[in-house]
Amino acid sequence: MQKKIRIIGGGLAGSEAALQFAKRGWQVDLYEMRPKRMTPAHSTDKLGELVCSNSLKSSLLTTASGLLKAELRLLGSELLKIADEVRVPAGNALAVDRDLFSEKVTERILQESMIKVHNEEVKELGDEPTILATGPLTSDAMSSVLNNLVGQDDLHFYDAIAPIISAESINREIVYRKSRYDKGTADYLNCPFTKEEYLRFVDALLEGEIYMGKSFEGELLQKNIQFYENCTPVEELAKRGKDTLRFGVMRPVGLELPDTGRRPYAVIQLRSENNDETAFNLVGCQTMMTQDSQRKVFRMIPGLESAEFYRYGSIHRNSYINAPLLLNRDLSLKTKKNVYIAGQLSGVEGYVESIASGLLVSLIITERLDYLPNTTIIGQLWERLTNTDGKEFTPQNANYGLLPPLEVKVSSKAERKETFAKRAIQSLEEALER
Question: In sequence order, which residues have a C-beta less than 8 Å from that of residue 372 and are 6 or more positions away?
């Protein structure tokens, strides 16, 4: 009998899962409501669209994100292969041309004979095996279905995205190309601040007008809103103190000025959106300011006085479930065991983590996977989604804090991370052999 699966949601998790099932001979019905029904954050009808950044973070094994990528490659991730095909220069990070990436993902899926794509909104869950990977912007109709199943309201937090500007509008007499500490290739452009420029910029951020045009954004004035830390708006970070930004996303260390060799007081980096370098992302400048305020404030950045905005920053609500209370070990709902939850809806946070979730649930169903080493990032993400420890559940991303302590004492921080990575890769390779 032909094995079949229904996947609802054509984002990173849903697309990865669809390709995994198809290459194992399963018939896949993939449902994506766009373009018939768009979301507040998406702009195309393509599968696997990257909404926020075009970066899948570091590829270095000494970073948790780099280690997770290495684990996913061992497990046969299809989307990482596509990401490698369309990567753009970004130092040690895996950044992609976001348009080419979603085009390639869509092309791969449409060419797969075992996958049938349905561009329609799903408003009910039947009895067939189903993966719900509708993402952080799950439609109201499906959110209502899910709430009825689990008996509680969705949890949620807020994400902000950064602006993208035209390369031609960047003043190259001020902005300079350099990688931090001159490591690798110089893939980033740097906007240097003097102390006076920095303080004026921070003051402007604090005075910027917040956009309150959407109903869920209106909640920001009425509730104690939780932001995911890596996507906290730059103006919210500025509220934590005058020096917060220059010791964080605007830190200047290793980015000395090429003509004088002196370190700027602060730096904002620009990352290319494509290989042609026609557009650049303002790294760390995710925001919920109005477009008028963005034009005023971000044009105060040295070298961006005439910045032309291809995309303004914005904020959107992300939904996720209280996974440890609601999911079985196989990531199915306790109240409806034929429905599996994947992607950011399950409570993982980040592009690579979403890919990992889609890959994981496909292996659980097709290969009856019931174990991954607890020394791996993906193993610990699985554990965090299905094992409640009595603590309040918050979205999980790849970080070395998930991993158990090393068996040997290592004093150097860099050596400790290398040891974590070697242990994880070795344990996963051994598990796959078994």
Answer: 360, 378, 379, 382, 428, 431
